[in-house]
Structures are given as structure tokens and as C-alpha cells.
Design brief:
Radius of gyration of chain A: 18 Å
Oligomer: heterodimer
Number of strands of chain B: 2
Structural class of chain A: alpha/beta
CATH architecture of chain A: 3-Layer(aba) Sandwich
Largest sheet of chain A: 6 strands, mixed
Shape of chain A: globular
Helix content of chain B: over 70%
Helix content of chain A: 25-40%
Number of domains of chain B: 2
Shape of chain B: globular
CATH topology of the largest domain in chain B: MetI-like fold
CATH superfamily of chain A: P-loop containing nucleotide triphosphate hydrolases
Order of helices and strands of chain B: HHEEHHHHHHHHH
Largest interface: A-B, 28 and 20 residues
Number of helices of chain A: 10
Order of helices and strands of chain A: EEEHEEHEHHHHEHEHEEHH
CATH architecture of the largest domain in chain B: Orthogonal Bundle
CATH topology of chain A: Rossmann fold
Radius of gyration of chain B: 24 Å
Distance between the termini of chain B: 43 Å
Distance between the termini of chain A: 34 Å
Number of strands of chain A: 10
Chain lengths: ~260, ~290
């Protein structure tokens, strides 16, 4: 971000955010901001609370037994708890989780579901949306001849890209990606990464990844989570080149034991 | 050269033994069904004819056909289904998809299971008290069918709920995460994938409803009524009660007659079951995960 750029708009403000599952605490006292139209990377080892943060953003605590959060999360200037219409909130937030769930509908219907939920009926409009989203998820070429095939019977990597296409079909303001490339080959991953770089002009992207290099390639700013704490947040270059904490340095240098 | 150890051989013998044991139990289960069908066909077959199905009983029910009883049973089953399916399926959807997991829900589930265990004669007395007398439907198809509906509701609810629960939770969560409401999720993802299981529950209900005797005896089924009912407020004959009557209450009935009635009753259930199973297979072939 150059010096002349206007001050970034805060899309998400997390203050003293803690997430609990029953008696287990997954994230405690996290404070950080995510700016509009940036890619915000979250790195950290397993069990560090990365996914829990994403789950709060979509208010998944309302249907996950035992899950609750404390502190405040402002999304688009409004406390998440004050979003009375959770369906509207979730429509503006697209999520992709590491275990892809292809709905037992056709490939076409999987991607057309979100527009249909919004009330889009026209076949021509749906066709355009479905193709655009599948292209962006680098899946179009593989499925364009079998859009009627069951989404739940695609291969694991294809289902993962299908869920990306489905999330994009929501035309979200905020896209949450949790290990989106876990079952995707490196070449396709690169294609999707290129798409993400373009997409950030339209939306804010939070990218949770175990591949520190992926965060380095994509993220404008990166946070390092460890054992339920947000250890460090900063511009990606600074975080990777000059980390303020020894643990961050140890993790990104792969010396973590 | 591979030589099985003593342990391998031991496991192999146990494996074979278990196989034979389970196979034997299965055959033991199939045997009565085969015998019942064989006896019915052998003894009741001669009574069957087109006239048997389409004529009224004559000669003090010792000759003639079973037309009013056959139509009566179909009417009773249809009205009972119309009454119980919407209520049962809706209740199951609530319990499976909307109800919070708390003590009240668990209590309701327990009550439904217990309702399924209430003897049919108790349902008959309830139907007599509630529908015949209190609501004033009289002894009628309506009263009898509602009694049957109440009796079979637990079956519909339990089987519908179980087929809804068989749809994996991640599908629901994926939908909710996209901003789908509960109902949108149910209508677009859950129900289409549960429909074959729901139909199974309805098949079970039909089989049970068609054969029940006690609940309709007091509430709407007539001993002898050689014409068709005109509305749901009329009494009707029914195959199950007719079978009981010609087998035990009427003198000088030819031996083949009760067997013929039983054969028609079983045949009716089998035909409905096969139709539903065929429908189920068509629906099932379209999907899965």
C-alpha cells in the first residue's frame, strides 16, 4: 500500500475475541483488524484457533453445539451479534472449508444454489453465473460437459474447487478460505491463486493456510496464530522478513518443534 | 508355501460356524412367510375369480364375492393415509430439523415411541370415545380411519425422522453457511435425499393399516353391508373384519372362502408394497453421495 493511498477501511475488527467449545478454549483474547479489499493471511500450526475465527465470522456458533464466543467482532461496522438477520450475514460471507462438501445436487445446481436462494430465476442469468464461478475456481474445463453430474461424486480436489465456485456464486463481500488448496494439485492451485489476486478488488479475502509460502505469495497482511493466541499481525513482507516474535520466526523458518 | 497356523484354522472354523448360524436364523425367519403364502395360495386359490372380487356376498356370506369389503379396506386406508401423512411428516420434520436438543424434545420422542407400543384394542376404545362419541362422527369410515391414523402416526414419525437424520449434517451446514434458511435447506437438500426413506415408512403404515381389525371393529367396520358406502360418514365392510367374520362367526362357510379373503388381503398389501418399492428405486437411482 503506497503512502498516498487513503486510510484503509476496516472490514473486520476483532477485539478480545475468544472462542470456546464446551470447556475447551480454541482462541483467546485475539485483537486484530482486517481491511477491506485485502487478502488477510492467517498462518499457524494445527489447533491454533485459525478455523475458529472463521467460524465466528459466519456465526456458526448458532448451529454448532457447545460453541460460543466472547469479545466483539465488528463486521462492516456492525457488531456480529447485532446482525439480526443471520441469513443476510451468511449470504455476504462465502466460506470454503478444508473438507469439501459437494451437495448431493448436480454440479450446475451446486453453483446455482446461492443465486437461486437470492431469488434469481432466469436460466440465462444462472448459466452466466455458473460458468463464471466455475471458471474462476479453475473447474470449468473439467466439468463443462457434465454439469448434470452429481457434485457429491466428483473427486476430492474437484469437490474442493466446486465449493470455491459455490462460495463465489454467493457474490460475497467477504470470502473465507480455509486450506482451500489441500486437495488441489500445484498447477491448479496457482491458477486459483491468480484468480484470488484479481478477486480482492471485489471482496475481502481471509486466507487460512498451512502453506506459509502461500500466505507470502498472496496475503497483503498476515497474522500468526499459536495455541489460541494471535501472536503477531503485520504486513506480509514485514512479518516474514522481520518478525517481532521469536516464535513467529521459528514457525516461518520451519524450525517449529 | 503358506501353512495356516492353528490360530488361522481356528478363526476359519469360527467364521464358518457364524456364517451358518446367521444363515440358519435368516431361513428360520423366511420359512413361516413361505408356508403362509403357500397354504393361502393352495387353499384360497380356488375361491379366487373375477366375480369373487366384484360381487357382493350372498347366502349369509357363505357364497358370492367380497367387493364391498375390498372397497371398504381401500377407502379406510386412503382416508387414514390422508390424515396421517401430512401430520406425521410435518411432526418428523420439526423434531429432526427444528427442535432444539433439550429435555422437552427428548420427552416428546419418548412419548412417540411409547405411543407405538399401545395395543390396538386400546386405540380402538380411544377411537370409539373420541371420534365416534365425542366428535359425533358415529360409526363411520371417518372415525375408523382417524383411529387407524392415530395408531400408525408413530410409525410414520419415527421412520420419517430417521430418514431425515440419515442425511449427513455437513450438507445442512454447507447450505446454512450460504445463507439458506432452515426451510430452504429442508426443501432443496434434506427432503429430496430423504424421500425414499420416508416412502418406506409409508409402506409400513399401509401394510399395518390394511390388516388392522380391532381399531375398526368399534369405530366403523360393519359385520355385513352388501352395498358401498356413499360418504365417509357411512359404515363400511372391511377385509380384515370380514375375514374374522367368515372364519369364526358364520356357519357353513366353504373352507376356501376365508383363505380366499386372506389371500386378497395379503395380495393387496404386497401389490402396494411392490409399487412403493419400485417408486423408491426410481427415486434412489437419481442421487446419493
Amino acid at each position: 500500500m503506497s503512502d498516498s493511498a487513503p486510510a484503509p477501511v476496516k472490514e473486520i475488527e476483532a477485539r478480545k475475541l475468544s472462542v470456546h467449545y464446551g470447556r475447551h478454549t480454541a482462541l483467546s483474547g485475539a485483537n486484530f483488524d482486517v481491511y477491506r479489499n485485502e487478502i488477510f493471511g492467517i498462518i499457524g500450526p494445527a489447533n491454533s484457533g485459525k478455523t475458529s475465527f472463521l467460524r465466528v465470522l459466519n456465526r456458526m456458533d448458532t448451529f454448532t453445539p457447545g460453541m460460543r464466543f466472547e469479545g466483539t467482532v465488528m463486521y462492516r461496522g456492525k457488531d456480529l451479534r447485532d446482525w439480526r438477520n443471520l441469513y443476510a450475514l451468511r449470504r455476504s460471507v462465502g466460506v470454503v472449508f478444508p473438507l469439501p462438501v459437494g451437495l448431493p445436487l448436480s454440479v450446475y445446481d451446486n453453483v446455482a444454489l446461492a443465486p437461486r436462494l437470492r431469488g434469481v430465476r432466469a436460466k440465462a442469468e444462472l448459466d452466466v453465473t455458473v460458468e463464471r464461478c466455475l471458471r474462476r475456481a479453475a473447474l470449468w474445463d473439467e466439468v463443462k460437459d457434465r454439469l448434470g453430474a452429481l457434485g457429491s461424486l466428483l473427486s476430492g480436489g474437484q469437490q474442493q474447487r466446486l465449493t470455491i465456485a459455490r462460495a463465489l456464486s454467493q457474490e460475497p463481500d467477504l470470502l473465507l478460505l480455509d486450506e482451500f488448496s489441500i486437495a488441489v494439485d500445484p498447477v491448479t492451485t496457482m491458477r486459483i491463486e491468480d484468480v484470488l489476486k484479481q478477486l480482492k478488488s471485489e471482496m475481502t479475502i481471509v486466507l487460512v493456510t498451512n502453506l506459509t509460502q502461500q500466505a507470502r505469495r498472496l496475503a497483503d497482511r498476515t497474522a500468526f496464530f499459536l495455541q489460541g493466541q494471535c501472536v503477531e499481525v503485520g504486513p506480509t513482507n514485514e512479518l516474514f522478513n522481520d518478525p517481532q516474535h521469536d516464535k513467529t520466526r521459528a514457525y516461518i523458518e520451519g524450525r517449529f518443534g | 508355501m503358506f501353512e495356516p497356523t492353528e490360530l488361522n484354522a481356528h478363526n476359519w472354523r469360527i467364521e464358518q460356524g457364524m456364517r451358518v448360524l446367521f444363515l440358519g436364523m435368516t431361513l428360520l425367519l423366511v420359512l413361516p412367510v413361505v408356508i403362509i403364502l403357500a397354504v393361502l395360495v393352495y387353499k384360497g386359490g380356488p375361491a379366487l375369480s373375477w366375480a369373487f372380487l366384484t360381487e357382493n356376498p350372498t347366502g349369509g356370506m357363505t357364497t358370492g364375492g367380497i367387493f364391498p369389503a375390498l372397497m371398504g379396506t381401500i377407502a379406510l386406508v386412503l382416508v387414514a393415509l390422508i390424515a396421517s401423512i401430512p401430520v406425521g411428516v410435518a411432526a418428523a420434520i420439526y423434531l429432526s430439523e427444528y427442535a432444539p436438543d433439550n429435555w422437552l424434545t427428548r420427552l416428546i420422542n419418548l412419548a412417540i415411541i411409547n405411543l407405538a407400543g399401545v395395543p390396538s384394542i386400546v386405540h380402538a376404545l380411544f377411537g370409539l370415545g373420541a371420534f365416534v362419541l365425542f366428535f359425533g362422527f358415529g360409526t363411520s369410515i371417518l372415525a375408523a380411519s382417524l383411529t387407524l391414523a392415530i395408531m400408525t402416526l408413530p410409525v410414520v414419525i419415527v421412520s420419517t425422522r430417521e430418514s431425515l437424520q440419515a442425511v449427513p449434517q455437513p450438507f445442512r451446514e454447507a447450505c446454512w453457511n450460504m445463507g439458506a434458511t432452515r426451510w430452504q435447506t429442508i426443501a432443496r437438500v434434506v427432503l429430496p435425499n430423504a424421500i425414499s426413506g420416508i416412502l418406506t415408512g409409508i409402506i409400513l403404515e399401509v401394510s399395518r393399516t390394511a390388516g388392522e381389525t380391532a381399531p375398526i371393529m368399534f369405530t366403523g367396520a360393519a359385520f355385513f353391508l352388501p352395498f358401498l358406502p356413499e360418504s365417509v360418514f357411512d359404515q363400511t365392510m372391511a377385509l380384515s373384519l370380514h375375514l374374522f367374520v367368515v372364519a369364526t362367526q358364520v356357519p357353513n362357510v366353504p373352507e376356501s372362502l376365508p383363505y380366499g379373503v386372506a389371500l386378497v388381503l395379503i395380495g393387496m398389501v404386497l401389490i402396494m408394497n411392490s409399487a412403493s418399492i419400485a417408486l423408491r428405486m426410481v427415486l434412489r437411482n437419481r442421487k446419493k453421495w
